[in-house]
Recover the amino acids of this structure.
Protein backbone atom coordinates (compact mmCIF):
# COMPACT_ATOMS: atom_id res chain seq x y z
CA UNK A 1 0.00 0.00 0.00
CA UNK A 2 1.71 3.17 -1.27
CA UNK A 3 0.26 5.40 1.43
CA UNK A 4 1.06 2.98 4.27
CA UNK A 5 3.60 4.15 6.87
CA UNK A 6 4.74 1.55 9.40
CA UNK A 7 6.58 2.88 12.45
CA UNK A 8 10.23 1.78 12.75
CA UNK A 9 9.54 -0.23 15.91
CA UNK A 10 6.60 -2.08 14.37
CA UNK A 11 8.44 -2.67 11.09
CA UNK A 12 11.42 -4.12 12.96
CA UNK A 13 9.19 -6.39 15.04
CA UNK A 14 7.36 -7.68 11.96
CA UNK A 15 10.64 -8.32 10.13
CA UNK A 16 11.99 -10.22 13.14
CA UNK A 17 8.73 -12.21 13.46
CA UNK A 18 8.13 -10.81 16.93
CA UNK A 19 4.59 -10.55 18.37
CA UNK A 20 2.59 -7.54 17.21
CA UNK A 21 -1.07 -6.69 17.90
CA UNK A 22 -3.03 -4.28 15.73
CA UNK A 23 -5.43 -1.86 17.44
CA UNK A 24 -8.10 0.36 15.85
CA UNK A 25 -8.83 4.05 16.31
CA UNK A 26 -12.61 4.25 15.84
CA UNK A 27 -13.00 3.59 19.57
CA UNK A 28 -11.12 6.86 20.15
CA UNK A 29 -13.21 9.04 17.85
CA UNK A 30 -16.60 7.31 17.73
CA UNK A 31 -16.78 4.34 20.10
CA UNK A 32 -16.26 6.01 23.47
CA UNK A 33 -16.87 9.53 24.75
CA UNK A 34 -13.83 11.73 25.31
CA UNK A 35 -11.57 11.66 27.20
CA UNK A 36 -12.43 7.96 27.72
CA UNK A 37 -11.54 6.97 24.18
CA UNK A 38 -7.99 8.31 24.26
CA UNK A 39 -7.37 6.99 27.77
CA UNK A 40 -8.61 3.51 26.91
CA UNK A 41 -6.51 3.46 23.72
CA UNK A 42 -3.39 4.22 25.77
CA UNK A 43 -4.37 1.60 28.33
CA UNK A 44 -4.81 -1.04 25.64
CA UNK A 45 -1.33 -0.33 24.33
CA UNK A 46 0.13 -0.70 27.85
CA UNK A 47 -1.72 -3.99 28.34
CA UNK A 48 -0.42 -5.42 25.05
CA UNK A 49 3.13 -4.51 26.08
CA UNK A 50 2.65 -5.99 29.56
CA UNK A 51 1.68 -9.30 27.94
CA UNK A 52 4.74 -9.48 25.75
CA UNK A 53 3.64 -8.01 22.41
CA UNK A 54 4.09 -4.72 20.58
CA UNK A 55 0.95 -2.62 19.97
CA UNK A 56 0.37 -1.15 16.52
CA UNK A 57 -2.52 1.30 16.66
CA UNK A 58 -3.73 2.19 13.16
CA UNK A 59 -5.23 5.43 11.88
CA UNK A 60 -4.95 8.01 9.09
CA UNK A 61 -3.24 11.40 9.44
CA UNK A 62 -2.60 13.80 6.55
CA UNK A 63 -3.53 11.17 4.00
CA UNK A 64 -1.12 8.58 5.36
CA UNK A 65 -2.23 5.27 6.89
CA UNK A 66 -0.08 5.05 10.00
CA UNK A 67 0.59 1.65 11.56
CA UNK A 68 2.00 2.13 15.05
CA UNK A 69 0.86 5.64 15.96
CA UNK A 70 2.58 7.68 18.65
CA UNK A 71 0.70 9.08 21.64
CA UNK A 72 0.97 12.54 20.12
CA UNK A 73 -0.53 11.29 16.85
CA UNK A 74 -3.39 9.60 18.70
CA UNK A 75 -4.08 12.81 20.65
CA UNK A 76 -4.15 14.78 17.42
CA UNK A 77 -6.60 12.33 15.88
CA UNK A 78 -8.81 12.53 18.96
CA UNK A 79 -8.80 16.34 18.83
CA UNK A 80 -9.52 16.61 15.10
CA UNK A 81 -13.12 17.79 14.62
CA UNK A 82 -15.29 15.76 12.28
CA UNK A 83 -12.69 13.07 11.75
CA UNK A 84 -13.85 10.49 9.20
CA UNK A 85 -14.81 6.98 10.27
CA UNK A 86 -13.01 5.03 7.57
CA UNK A 87 -13.93 1.69 6.06
CA UNK A 88 -12.46 0.06 2.92
CA UNK A 89 -14.85 1.91 0.59
CA UNK A 90 -13.80 5.35 1.93
CA UNK A 91 -10.09 4.63 2.46
CA UNK A 92 -8.98 6.02 -0.91
CA UNK A 93 -11.05 9.20 -0.67
CA UNK A 94 -9.63 10.14 2.75
CA UNK A 95 -6.07 9.30 1.70
CA UNK A 96 -6.30 11.13 -1.65
CA UNK A 97 -7.70 14.23 0.07
CA UNK A 98 -4.84 14.23 2.59
CA UNK A 99 -7.38 13.87 5.36
CA UNK A 100 -7.55 12.29 8.79
CA UNK A 101 -9.53 9.22 9.68
CA UNK A 102 -10.10 6.61 12.34
CA UNK A 103 -10.13 3.01 11.20
CA UNK A 104 -13.10 0.70 11.65
CA UNK A 105 -12.61 -3.03 12.14
CA UNK A 106 -12.71 -3.54 8.36
CA UNK A 107 -10.19 -0.80 7.63
CA UNK A 108 -7.89 -1.94 10.45
CA UNK A 109 -7.97 -5.54 9.20
CA UNK A 110 -7.08 -4.32 5.70
CA UNK A 111 -4.15 -2.19 6.92
CA UNK A 112 -2.93 -4.86 9.33
CA UNK A 113 -2.86 -7.44 6.55
CA UNK A 114 -0.98 -5.06 4.26
CA UNK A 115 1.58 -4.46 7.01
CA UNK A 116 1.97 -8.17 7.81
CA UNK A 117 0.26 -8.14 11.20
CA UNK A 118 -1.78 -11.28 11.91
CA UNK A 119 -3.53 -10.47 15.22
CA UNK A 120 -5.96 -7.63 15.95
CA UNK A 121 -7.84 -6.78 19.16
CA UNK A 122 -11.12 -4.89 18.98
CA UNK A 123 -14.31 -4.53 21.01
CA UNK A 124 -17.05 -5.97 18.81
CA UNK A 125 -17.21 -6.59 15.09
CA UNK A 126 -19.94 -5.27 12.83
CA UNK A 127 -22.35 -7.65 11.16
CA UNK A 128 -25.75 -8.02 9.56
CA UNK A 129 -28.06 -5.22 10.68
CA UNK A 130 -31.59 -5.79 11.84
CA UNK A 131 -34.04 -5.53 8.90
CA UNK A 132 -31.15 -6.14 6.50
CA UNK A 133 -33.60 -8.04 4.31
CA UNK A 134 -35.18 -4.62 3.64
CA UNK A 135 -32.20 -2.26 3.83
CA UNK A 136 -29.40 -4.56 2.62
CA UNK A 137 -27.24 -3.17 5.42
CA UNK A 138 -24.35 -5.52 6.15
CA UNK A 139 -21.13 -4.31 7.78
CA UNK A 140 -17.96 -4.20 5.70
CA UNK A 141 -16.27 -5.92 8.66
CA UNK A 142 -17.60 -9.29 7.50
CA UNK A 143 -16.25 -8.94 3.97
CA UNK A 144 -12.91 -7.74 5.32
CA UNK A 145 -12.73 -10.88 7.48
CA UNK A 146 -13.46 -12.92 4.34
CA UNK A 147 -10.56 -11.31 2.46
CA UNK A 148 -7.70 -10.88 4.92
CA UNK A 149 -5.75 -13.40 6.99
CA UNK A 150 -5.98 -11.67 10.35
CA UNK A 151 -7.17 -13.19 13.64
CA UNK A 152 -9.64 -10.76 15.21
CA UNK A 153 -10.20 -11.02 18.95
CA UNK A 154 -13.67 -9.69 19.74
CA UNK A 155 -16.47 -9.93 22.31
CA UNK A 156 -18.78 -11.02 19.50
CA UNK A 157 -20.75 -8.68 17.24
CA UNK A 158 -22.34 -5.44 18.42
CA UNK A 159 -25.46 -6.36 20.40
CA UNK A 160 -27.61 -4.00 18.34
CA UNK A 161 -27.16 -6.23 15.25
CA UNK A 162 -28.93 -9.32 13.93
CA UNK A 163 -26.68 -11.89 15.58
CA UNK A 164 -28.14 -15.09 14.04
CA UNK A 165 -27.71 -13.74 10.51
CA UNK A 166 -24.25 -12.42 11.36
CA UNK A 167 -23.06 -15.84 12.53
CA UNK A 168 -24.67 -17.49 9.49
CA UNK A 169 -22.93 -15.11 7.09
CA UNK A 170 -19.54 -15.69 8.73
CA UNK A 171 -20.01 -19.39 8.03
CA UNK A 172 -21.02 -18.68 4.44
CA UNK A 173 -17.90 -16.55 3.95
CA UNK A 174 -15.64 -19.28 5.32
CA UNK A 175 -14.58 -17.35 8.42
CA UNK A 176 -14.14 -19.72 11.38
CA UNK A 177 -15.48 -18.57 14.75
CA UNK A 178 -13.44 -19.89 17.67
CA UNK A 179 -14.97 -19.55 21.14
CA UNK A 180 -12.38 -18.87 23.83
CA UNK A 181 -13.72 -20.84 26.77
CA UNK A 182 -17.25 -20.71 25.39
CA UNK A 183 -19.59 -22.79 23.22
CA UNK A 184 -21.66 -19.73 22.33
CA UNK A 185 -21.08 -16.63 20.25
CA UNK A 186 -20.96 -13.73 22.73
CA UNK A 187 -23.33 -10.78 22.43
CA UNK A 188 -20.92 -7.96 23.32
CA UNK A 189 -22.50 -6.70 26.56
CA UNK A 190 -23.64 -10.25 27.35
CA UNK A 191 -21.58 -13.45 27.39
CA UNK A 192 -24.07 -15.60 25.50
CA UNK A 193 -26.43 -15.36 22.55
CA UNK A 194 -27.70 -18.91 22.16
CA UNK A 195 -25.69 -19.23 18.93
CA UNK A 196 -23.00 -21.89 18.59
CA UNK A 197 -19.40 -21.16 17.67
CA UNK A 198 -17.57 -23.38 15.16
CA UNK A 199 -15.13 -24.67 17.76
CA UNK A 200 -14.55 -24.14 21.45
CA UNK A 201 -10.92 -23.63 22.52
CA UNK A 202 -10.05 -23.62 26.21
CA UNK A 203 -6.43 -22.49 25.97
CA UNK A 204 -4.29 -20.03 24.06
CA UNK A 205 -2.26 -22.96 22.75
CA UNK A 206 -5.38 -24.57 21.27
CA UNK A 207 -6.57 -21.32 19.70
CA UNK A 208 -3.12 -20.60 18.27
CA UNK A 209 -2.81 -24.07 16.77
CA UNK A 210 -6.21 -23.68 15.11
CA UNK A 211 -5.40 -20.20 13.76
CA UNK A 212 -2.07 -21.42 12.40
CA UNK A 213 -3.70 -24.42 10.72
CA UNK A 214 -6.36 -22.19 9.16
CA UNK A 215 -3.79 -19.75 7.78
CA UNK A 216 -1.80 -22.67 6.33
CA UNK A 217 -4.53 -24.85 4.85
CA UNK A 218 -7.85 -23.05 5.15
CA UNK A 219 -9.44 -20.54 2.76
CA UNK A 220 -7.73 -17.12 2.54
CA UNK A 221 -9.89 -15.60 5.25
CA UNK A 222 -9.48 -14.23 8.73
CA UNK A 223 -10.46 -15.89 11.99
CA UNK A 224 -12.86 -14.63 14.65
CA UNK A 225 -11.71 -15.33 18.21
CA UNK A 226 -14.88 -14.88 20.24
CA UNK A 227 -13.85 -13.85 23.75
CA UNK A 228 -16.85 -13.16 26.05
CA UNK A 229 -16.83 -10.13 28.31
CA UNK A 230 -15.53 -11.16 31.77
CA UNK A 231 -18.31 -12.55 33.95
CA UNK A 232 -17.88 -9.87 36.61
CA UNK A 233 -18.36 -7.13 34.00
CA UNK A 234 -21.33 -8.58 32.09
CA UNK A 235 -24.35 -6.27 31.80
CA UNK A 236 -27.39 -7.59 33.75
CA UNK A 237 -29.96 -9.19 31.45
CA UNK A 238 -32.84 -6.90 32.44
CA UNK A 239 -30.77 -3.74 31.98
CA UNK A 240 -29.48 -5.00 28.64
CA UNK A 241 -32.89 -5.90 27.22
CA UNK A 242 -34.57 -2.66 28.32
CA UNK A 243 -31.75 -0.46 27.00
CA UNK A 244 -31.56 -2.31 23.68
CA UNK A 245 -35.32 -2.09 23.14
CA UNK A 246 -35.28 1.65 23.86
CA UNK A 247 -32.31 2.22 21.53
CA UNK A 248 -33.89 0.29 18.66
CA UNK A 249 -37.17 2.14 19.06
CA UNK A 250 -35.38 5.50 19.05
CA UNK A 251 -33.45 4.60 15.88
CA UNK A 252 -36.65 3.57 14.12
CA UNK A 253 -38.43 6.74 15.16
CA UNK A 254 -35.51 8.92 14.05
CA UNK A 255 -35.18 7.09 10.73
CA UNK A 256 -31.47 6.46 11.21
CA UNK A 257 -29.95 4.44 8.36
CA UNK A 258 -26.64 3.10 7.03
CA UNK A 259 -23.35 3.68 8.81
CA UNK A 260 -25.00 6.05 11.31
CA UNK A 261 -27.04 3.22 12.87
CA UNK A 262 -24.39 1.60 15.07
CA UNK A 263 -22.98 4.79 16.65
CA UNK A 264 -26.54 6.06 17.20
CA UNK A 265 -27.61 2.86 18.93
CA UNK A 266 -24.47 2.65 21.06
CA UNK A 267 -24.96 6.26 22.15
CA UNK A 268 -28.57 5.50 23.12
CA UNK A 269 -27.43 2.38 24.99
CA UNK A 270 -24.96 4.55 26.89
CA UNK A 271 -27.69 7.00 27.86
CA UNK A 272 -30.21 4.27 28.74
CA UNK A 273 -27.75 2.50 31.04
CA UNK A 274 -26.48 5.69 32.71
CA UNK A 275 -23.02 5.03 31.31
CA UNK A 276 -22.86 1.38 32.38
CA UNK A 277 -22.41 0.30 28.75
CA UNK A 278 -19.15 2.30 28.61
CA UNK A 279 -17.84 0.43 31.65
CA UNK A 280 -18.69 -2.91 30.04
CA UNK A 281 -17.14 -1.77 26.75
CA UNK A 282 -13.89 -0.84 28.48
CA UNK A 283 -13.75 -4.17 30.32
CA UNK A 284 -14.20 -6.24 27.17
CA UNK A 285 -11.66 -4.16 25.25
CA UNK A 286 -9.08 -4.82 27.95
CA UNK A 287 -9.88 -8.53 28.03
CA UNK A 288 -9.57 -8.77 24.25
CA UNK A 289 -6.22 -6.96 24.27
CA UNK A 290 -4.85 -9.47 26.79
CA UNK A 291 -6.01 -12.47 24.74
CA UNK A 292 -4.73 -10.95 21.48
CA UNK A 293 -1.30 -10.33 22.98
CA UNK A 294 -1.12 -13.88 24.28
CA UNK A 295 -2.10 -15.24 20.86
CA UNK A 296 0.48 -13.05 19.12
CA UNK A 297 3.20 -14.25 21.50
CA UNK A 298 2.23 -17.88 20.93
CA UNK A 299 2.12 -17.46 17.14
CA UNK A 300 5.55 -15.82 17.15
CA UNK A 301 7.05 -18.64 19.24
CA UNK A 302 6.55 -21.25 16.51
Amino acid sequence: MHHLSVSPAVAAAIAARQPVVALETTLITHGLPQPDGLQVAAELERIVVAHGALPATIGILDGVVRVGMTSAELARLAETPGVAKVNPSTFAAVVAAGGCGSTTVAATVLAADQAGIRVFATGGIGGVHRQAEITGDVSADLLALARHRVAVVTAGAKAVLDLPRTVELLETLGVPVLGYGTDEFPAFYRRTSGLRVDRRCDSIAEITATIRAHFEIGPPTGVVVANPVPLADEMPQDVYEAALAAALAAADEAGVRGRDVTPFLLDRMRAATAGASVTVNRALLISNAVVAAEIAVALAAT
Remarks:
- The chain has one domain: 4-300.
- Residues 211 and 223 are 7 Å apart (CA to CA).
